Amino acid sequence: MEMILILYIYPIVVIMASIVFYYITRKWYVGPVLTFIILTIMTLTPAFTTAFFNCVIVYTVLSIGVTFISKLFSRKK
Question: Measured between alpha carbons, how far is 35 from 51 in angstroms, rounded to an integer?
Fold first, then answer.
């Protein structure tokens, strides 16, 4: 069950949250920073191991990429 969460559910949630935070704040760094903070806090709980921190880095990079793609699509012509 954890593998399904890590491979499918968490990336989808990170992508959606990054898009939402960008369109709400119009700042590219809000989504990645919140993603990093929330997932790092999740790493400290007993439900996750310290190996999950590698996933935190990957999800943060994913969030940065999605935010910049959202920024490209939201530019006014």
Answer: 17
pTM, two decimals, is 0.87
Whole-number Å distance between alpha carbons of 63 and 67: 6
Contacts 24+ apart (CB under 8 A), 4-12: 6/52, 6/55, 10/39, 10/55, 10/59, 11/59, 11/62
User: CA nearest 20: which of 31, 9, 10, 12?
Assistant: 31
Distance CA 73, CA 41 (A): 31
Q: Residues 28-46: pLDDT tens digits?
A: 999 999 999 999 999 998 8
